[in-house]
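Listing S7. Sequence submitted for prediction.
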Amino acid sequence: FIQKEIDTAEPESYQQSYALLRMADYLNNTDTPFEEVEKFCREHWDDFKMREWLACQFIQREEWQKAIAVYEELIQLDLGYRGSVKGYREELLRLYRKTGNAEKALAMLWDLVCKSNSREYYNELKSQYTEEEWIQKREKVFVCFNRYGQAQLLCEEKLYDRLWKLVKDADL
């Protein structure tokens, strides 16, 4: 029945995506070996919900490296969807921490701040460096943000002379 729904649904439609998820759940909740469930998901890899579903299954199964690999691929495949990519980066940050990969966790913090323009991770990134190191590192962060974001960061860093210059020069 579910296969018929998949076959008759408009390609790339909500109905097809929902039917694919139902089939994956069905396969996962029966005696189907997980390798076959994974194969089914990969056969429908063009559906982002299938990719996300598989990543979540790897997390539930505590197969951290496989989950990381899927999320890293999701970022590349869904670059045009900023909200989704930010969520994938946040999940990767959590997984890198869980697996003790401090180097990749730090790199993901940089991606969240600079590529996702996520101010919520700014102070966490800042806490990874000494005061002296941060003075140089923060300049890399400033250029990632638009003028309004820069103004907020300059204010947070108490760099009021630079803030005043930005406000004057950018007519903010």
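Caption to Listing S7: primary sequence and predicted structure tokens for the chain studied. The chain has a mean pLDDT of 92. The chain has eleven helices and no strands.
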